[in-house]
Amino acid sequence: MPRAAVVLDPVDPWTAVSAEAISGLAPDRGALVIAPDQRDVERLGRELTSRGIDHEVLLAADGPEKRYRAFLRILRGASRVVIGTRSACFAPVQNLALIVLWDEADDLHEEPRAPYPHSRTVLQCRSWEERAALLLLSASRSTTVETLAAQGYLRLLEPVPAPSAQVRPLVEAMDEHLREREGPSGRSRLPGHALRVIRDGVTRGPVLVQVPRTGYVPALVCTFCGTRCRCPECASALTVPRGGSALQCPVCGRREDAYRCPECDRTGVRAVVIGSTRTAEELRRAFPQVPLLVAGGAQGPVADDDVPGEAIVVSTPGAEPAPAGGYAAAVLLDAEGLLGRAAFDADMEAVRRWRNAIALVRTQEHGGRVLVVGDARLPAIRDLVMHRSRVLIDHVLADRRALDLPPFTRAADLTGPRGAVQEMLGELQLPPATHVYGPVEVPGEDADLVRAVLRVAPEQARDLARTLRGATATRTARKRPGSVRVRIDPSGVL
Asked: Exposed, middle or buried, 384 (CB in 10 Å: 0-12/13-18/19+)?
């Protein structure tokens, strides 16, 4: 059975590629397409409708009666094309021939409830059991997909060779040359070059401005030692609310009028990341005559059809609306803020979010332009500038192999009361060479709640899963006190 993955160029919308693949099926064959969120499903639905392809939509937000009726239609074979979010992975499509998964690296594909299945894993099983073709589509390279290709599980399909200007927008970064040319403003968060890109873009269409965080000033650190400013009461990150000058805790409401760093006892603080609300205020002052929309966070989503022809859209990653015809330009602000996430995969996740935004911009031959405001020397930012480059993904995979990080290792975590976790660890018959870390206290939770991490080589993953399944069943049958949550390969486990 064919299994393949394609990293799409911005000129090729994933909805059009999926629709083309579905239209090539025989009338009696079924297809299943899974996307991370409801807006992606709606976009695909509009594309299928425009091509006259009948389909069924399954969304988690649908009520039980609507989902039940849809399942009956699918089970009877009345609907042979099914699209939806992760819960639609289990749709009983008859005579299934094609499975398409969009953006498999998105964390929305991971079910947060037991037994915590991932859309990719479920669809891989269905592809094997039902002998259906599997197609993984994305806008950026994924370490998991690259590893599956290296193991021979699937084939990486390269896009048709074409000049860069015909398949993607012009992407540039604020390198040292541009910063020196700008003078003092070149070192600012919103340099003059970025304002010129926005000013030129709004004359030709909507402009996207992406910022890492929502809110006003959502993250602060000490100017001297860099310690994160946290509330003395609840340890939550202190912020500066809109229109305020004093630091305030968004969780317990504590106000810090005379904050002092607990590490160096100094009073100076600076913002690590400026939120979308504050960014919108700055752009509204710079472009008072241009319509401005804020997407994501407390402002909620913005519908694709609600974006005017000439407007500025300030959005957080993943909340970007997709106007018809694409954006004339995009500015990706605070690149270091998105790369500074406390996770070993922060670089690949940042690139994924940036490339998903770049995919919404017109190609260079149609005037499309993208400016990344960040350190141009960083490998993740250089990867955006280079066309169809493998430098970053090869470097990341080499580092992870040397450090025994996923996908070159498999992991599981046990979370629960300390006594229950320790008891379960003592009874496990673990595979040889299993590394056990912890148990340690779970940050921000009850002091008695701990987590232990088990790490094994990929070839031992099946044995580890079988051992954990048996231990969980034994605890349940014997009604042992304390509930232990077991997860296999959870995101952010290492």
From this structure: buried
Report how far residue 209's alpha carbon sits from residue 333's, in angstroms, rounded to the nearest whole number: 7
DSSP code per residue over 239-265: BB-TT--SEE-TTT--EESS---TTT-
Q: Are 365 and 405 in contact (CB under 8 A)?
A: no
Q: Identify the domain containing residue 178 by its residue range.
A: 167-213+278-398
Q: Is residue 214 predicted with pLDDT exceeding 80?
A: no
Which of 199, 198, 140 has its CA nearest to residue 168? 140
Give the CA dihedral 452, 458, 459, 460, nearest 10 degrees. Answer: 0
Query: Looking at the structure, do residues 56 and 15 belong to the same domain, yes or no?
Result: yes
| Chain Cα centroid distance, residue 243 | 31
d(CA 141, CA 392): 9
d(CA 132, CA 359): 28
Q: What residues form DSSP beta bridges with 331?
A: 209, 371
Report the C-alpha gap between 469 and 462 in whole angstroms.
11
Distance CA 53, CA 167 (A): 27
d(Cα 168, Cα 370) in Å, to the nearest integer? Answer: 10
Give yes or no: residues 202 and 302 share one domain: yes
* 403 part of a folded domain: no
Q: Are residues 338 and 431 in the same domain?
A: no
CATH number at residue 380: 3.40.50.300
Contact criterion met (CB below 8 Å) for 113 and 37: no
CA angle 372, 351, 491 (to 5 degrees): 145
Q: Which of 398, 430, 448 is the last residue of a domain?
A: 398
Residue 441 has what pLDDT? Answer: 86
- Are residues 48 and 12 part of one domain? yes
In this structure, is the dihedral angle defined by the CA atoms of residues 422, 468, 465 and 119, taken in order, positive or negative? Answer: negative
d(CA 256, CA 254): 7
Decide: residue 245, CB within 10 A, 0-12 exposed, 13-18 middle, 19+ buried.
exposed
Q: Which amino acid is at 43?
A: R
Residues 101 and 235 in one domain: no
CA dist 55 and 57 (Å) reads 7
Instruction: Write the pLDDT tens digit of every residue in 417-441.
Output: 999 999 999 989 898 889 998 888 8
Global model pTM greater than 0.85: yes
Per the prediction, the chain carries an average pLDDT of: 89
The count of domains in the chain is: 4
> CB within 8 A of 438, min separation 6: which ones?
450, 451, 452, 453
Residues 455 and 474 in one domain: yes
